[in-house]
Amino acid sequence: MSQTGDIQTPLMCGLPDDIAFFCLARVPRKYHAVLNCVSKRWRDLVSSDEWHAYRRKHNLHETWIYALCRDKFEQVCCYVLDPNSSRRHWKRIPGFPPHSLKRKGMGFEALGKKIYLLGGCGWMEDATEEVYCYDASMNSWTEAACLSTPRCYFACEVLDEKIHAIGGLGSKSSTPHSWDTYDPYTNSWKCDFDPNIIPEIEDSVVMDGKILIRTNITPVTSRASAVFYEPSSGMWQRIDIDMAVGWQGPAVNVDGTFYVLDQYSGTRLMMWQKEIREWVPVGRLSSLVTRPPCRLVAIGKNIFVIGKGRRTVVIDVGNAGNMEGVMVSTSIPNLTSDDEDDDVMSCKCLAI
Questions:
Q1: Which of 2, 93, 116, 272 has its CA 20 to 30 A from that of 63?
Q2: Residue 55 region, left (φ>0) first, then alpha (ψ -120 to 50), else beta?
């Protein structure tokens, strides 16, 4: 069928296109791959910004979790989890960019309906500015606009619908104190510099409209150094010591509350209480269900603790029960002898 004829064909026979769109937009996300196979019009619709915006506006969007992992062969791979599925398990995403299979220190971020894989370096390869993009609605990888500055081992966060690639290592001496900002509307990166950006970034999170980053815990001070980015001033500033001292693991923001997973003695979930400016223990997780080192993501009131081999534990912090100090949680087992040693480097959420 010609392109003209395909455009003139209604989305659904006997229905105006706006009504057909209304019906199709309510199809659960797990069936979108099937919709893509019906016709070119349906495929174009499912991958369109209009579809994505409509589902979000009417609270029809569903959030899936994406994990960047490294397997026992030291190759990088990407997995996806539908947390609402009746048979929850991690699925490997095909077509991973071959140039990135052996790279380390890559950035990993979700924006809109796409996952971005940024920068990185290798044993015989300097830091790169390459960026690859995975379109979750089309299940395909493409090249994207390159970073302004080659980077590896850097922080990556989304703020105000823009990706920020912060600090890290690169070919320039200024790289550890600079950051790149990606605007999807212009498909371009802009580089800025601030001497307050800390080197050797270990973790990052977005809280209260600010980007927070922290370093490794140093043996001299036995605590991490942390700074935050204030968009109104465009500057980086030091985080108060009382908050920074308790940030000793992966962090996540749940409805404006800052949670940290302390992994230095078992796995214990901590919460920052802004009103009294103190860290409060929420509870510890059983060593039988977690496999540190872990990463955290949040969907609603649920925190997903994703450890080695993608072993996943779900904690409902809105209703966090305790049994003798151990938090009540559910787990998502998906281990085989082939993947139980996979390291999880980063996890992000993407809603469609």
A1: 272
A2: alpha
Helix (H) or strand (E) holding 20: helix 17-24
DSSP of 118-185, one letter per residue? E--BBTTB--B--EEEEETTTTEEEEEPPPSS-BBS-EEEEETTEEEEE--B-SSTTGGGEEEEEETT
One DSSP character per residue, 110-134 reads EETTEEEEE--BBTTB--B--EEEE
User: Which residues are within 8 A (CB) of 326 and not within 5 positions of it... i.e. 6 or more apart?
Assistant: 283, 284, 285, 286
Q: Note the Cα 281 to chain centre separation in Å.
A: 25
Give the pLDDT confidence of 313-344 residue by residue, as tens digits: 999 988 765 644 566 677 776 545 467 789 99
The encoded tokens of residue 1 equal: 């069928």
Q: Distance of CA 307 to CAs 92, 297, 316, 344, Å?
A: 16, 12, 17, 6
In sequence order, the β-bridge partners of residue 316 are: 302
* Cα distance from N-terminal residue to C-terminal residue, the chain: 29
Per DSSP, 104 falls in state B
User: How many residues comprise the chain?
Assistant: 352
* Residue pair 316/299 in contact by the 8 Å Cβ criterion: no
> Can you give the pTM of this predicted structure?
0.92
